[in-house]
Every structure is written in C-alpha cells, then in structure tokens.
Amino acid sequence: MRYLAVIKIAFRALRRNKMRTVLTMLGIIIGVGAVIAMVALGKAAKAQVEARIAALGQNVIQVFSGSVNRNGVFSGFGGAGTLTVDDANAMQSEIPGVVAVSPEVRSGAQIMAGENNWQTSVMGEDVDYLVIRQWDMTEGAMFTDADVRSTAKVCVLGKTTADKLFPDGGAVGQIIRIKNVPVKVLGVLRAKGASMFGQDQDDTVIVPYTTGMKRFAGVTTLRMINVSAASADQLAAVQNAIADLLRQRHRIQPGRDDDFILRNQQEIAEAQTATTDVMTALLAGVATISLIVGGIGIMNIMLVSVTERTREIGIRMAVGARGHDILLQFLIEAVTLSSTGGILGILLGIGGAKMLTIVKHWPTLVSTDSILIAFVFSAAVGIFFGFYPARKASKLDPIDALRYE
C-alpha cells in the first residue's frame, strides 16, 4: 500500500471521532505549553542573574577582609580589617595580569543638599573603580589621582542618590554635606540597577578611598580590594598569585587559616546561577510529567481504537494490506495526535509566558531551543506510546479479526 494512502486513512480515522481526538491531544497541549512557559521563567531568571553579575565588571576578583582568631574568638567575615592600602599597591605592582586595583572602604551616612537629605552608603574607592566596574558617567567626571593623594573632599553620585538630593537635576558642581563635611559633586553615574543581591547599586556616593578612610569611616584598613584581571583566562592565575602574595605579606604560616577571602566573577556566577538552574530543572520536570500523562492518554485511546476497529483491520488485511501497513497507519495516527498537540502547546506556552509578563510582571524568555525540544519530545511521545497499540493492531490474525464483533 502506498504511504500516501496510509496517511489519508489515518487522518480519516482521526476526523471520525473529533471530540475524542481533541481530548486526547489536550494532555500533550497542556504538557508542552507548561514546559515552554516554565522554562521561559527559569531562563529569564538566569538571564537576570547573569546580567547583574556582568554589572560587576569584566574579569573581576574581589578580595575581602577575612576573620581572625584572637584568644579563641573569631572576629567574623569582613570584621578583622586585615587588608591595607599597601596590600592593594603590592597587587598592582607585583602581580602580572592585573590591570586595575581599587581599595574599598564603606560607611553609611545621612547626606544633605539644601533642604533635601538622604540616607545612603559612602564608598571610598580609587580612580580605577569605574574602569573595573565598567561604569560610565552621564554628567561630569571622576575624581583624579591628585584628589586621592590629597584626601580631597569631592565625590560622584549614583543616579538614585542624585535624583533624591537634586530632583531637578544640576548636581554637578553642587556642594553636599556628608557627616557635616562639605563635599563637592564632580559627576553623576549612569544608572546600573539592582545588584545580584537585590541592592540598588545607584544608591551610593563614591569618594576617594583616602577621604573615606580619614573623614567618614575613620579606619586605617580596608574592607575590600577590587582587582581586574587582563582576561578571563588569567582569572585563576591572578587569584592564586593574590593569595600567595597576601599569605607572604601577612606572614601566614603553612597550615594556618587565611585572614582574607577571594572571590572571582566566575565563582560568583556559578554560585548564583546554580539556584536558577535547579529551579528551571524542577519546573521543567513537573511540566514534563504532564507530557508523560498525555502520552499515556494517547496509548489508552489508541488501544481503544484498535479494539473498535478490529473488524476493519481484518478486512484490510484480507484484501492485501500487510502488517507493516497497519503498523504505519496507527503510528501515523499517534504521531499526528502528539505533533498537533505539540504545535498547539507551543502556541499556548508562548501565550502563557507573555501573559505572565503582562499580568504578573514576571520576566520570561522563550527560546527557540525550548520550542524545538518541546516539539520533538511531543512527537517522540507519540511514537513511544503509540508503538505498542500499533504493533498490537499489526499482529492481529485476519481470520480472528473478521470474526470479531
């Protein structure tokens, strides 16, 4: 029997019971739609995390002041003040592959500008900080090396802080007061958005680190040192070199705990995206169960169809149809059910993802890969669950089939 004739017979059989056909496809439709919508949610969450990590800058290594044990008491992460400006200078001058270094100190302060005031964080940084973070200015300019050396009372404002203190604009050149210290605004930073921890990166004031240490934080040690490597390939080597340098400078004996903590951008990315990967896998796994249930529904209906059409199968075999033709017919019916359901499910999934974005304001990202995988999987479900009923039909004895009532 020609393949075209087999296909026509298969489609005719499906049209004969339209309601049953639609209900059978419903499980596949819901399953494919759920897979696409859930994966879209997971991919969007992962993309957001990656974008926030990228906002740290390129090839960044963060060196944190660690904890030390004094008389059995641990000072806690970041509380020991184990990093110094000399450590930062040594990293810049002694480690190959380091292109930029910025010592960092932080403190909180109530900032005033005329009648406006705002509580924010004051970050002491070096002039290379914006290079490390790949952060641009929208107005004005960054402070200079001379400002750092002279402990100048100057700053640049994050976009959020600038908007709060100067809602009408014109922040550059104005004088603000940080802890009652008059500070001149040199520039305003481009909006960067939330950090990977959900904090507003634009809600900040950046001053020379020397100014931050002496006038605002009142410390002689650093909270953190930001380091930028020349390339991603050099991150691991630079990180190991920093660790060796600090152990040597801090006279840490072999076998003793380090009094600093190192984190590179790749480690942060892996840690942050691991959670979204697990969430995506769980959501997709739950949705895949719907596909399997839909496949079981197809098998059930195809078995019923074989039983109902036993006499028809016997007649076709009696007039020359081979077992291969019967097998092909029922497989085509099963694959048609699952593939059509897959196409409708794809449309449902894309529409559902868009509805989640519109109604719930959840970001979604529908990828071509997820659509192709969902469609191929739905077709595979039809073949897998349709094969047994089709094989059962092809193995019927023509004489027994003709006697079946």
Supply the key terms.
56% helix; six-stranded mixed barrel; two-stranded antiparallel sheet; 405 residues; 12 strands; alpha+beta; 13 helices; 2 domains
Structure summarized in a few sentences:
This protein is of the alpha+beta class. The protein has helices spanning 3-16, 18-54, 85-94, 129-133, 145-149, 159-165, 209-217, 235-249, 265-308, 310-318, 323-360, 368-394, 398-403, and strands at 60-65, 69-70, 73-74, 98-113, 116-125, 137-140, 154-157, 175-178, 181-189, 204-208, 224-229, 260-264. The two termini are 26 Å apart.
Structure, described:
The protein has 405 residues and is of the alpha+beta class. The chain has 2 domains: 3-52 and 271-403, no CATH class; 83-258, no CATH class. Helix content is 56%, strand content 18%. The chain contains 13 helices and 12 strands. It has a 6-stranded mixed β-barrel. A two-stranded antiparallel ribbon has the order 2-3. A hairpin with a 2-residue loop joins strand 8 and strand 9. Helix 2 runs antiparallel to helix 12 (368-394). The radius of gyration is 33 Å and the shape is elongated. Mean pLDDT is 84; it is low at 70-75.
Shape: elongated
Class derived from helix and strand content: alpha+beta
Element-level helix/strand string: HHEEEHEEHEHEHEEEHEHEHHHHH
Q: How many strands appear in the DSSP assignment?
A: 12
The spatial strand order of the largest sheet comes to: 4-5-10-7-9-8
For the largest beta-sheet, the strand count, sense and barrel status come to: 6 strands, mixed, barrel
pLDDT < 50 runs, ≥5 residues: 70-75
How many helical elements?
A: 13
Helix residue percentage: 55-70%
User: What is the distance, rounded to the nearest whole angstrom, between the alpha carbons of the first and last residues?
Assistant: 26 Å
**Strand portion:** 15-25%
Number of domains: 2
* Structural Rg: 33 Å
Q: Taking all residues together, what is the mean pLDDT?
A: 84
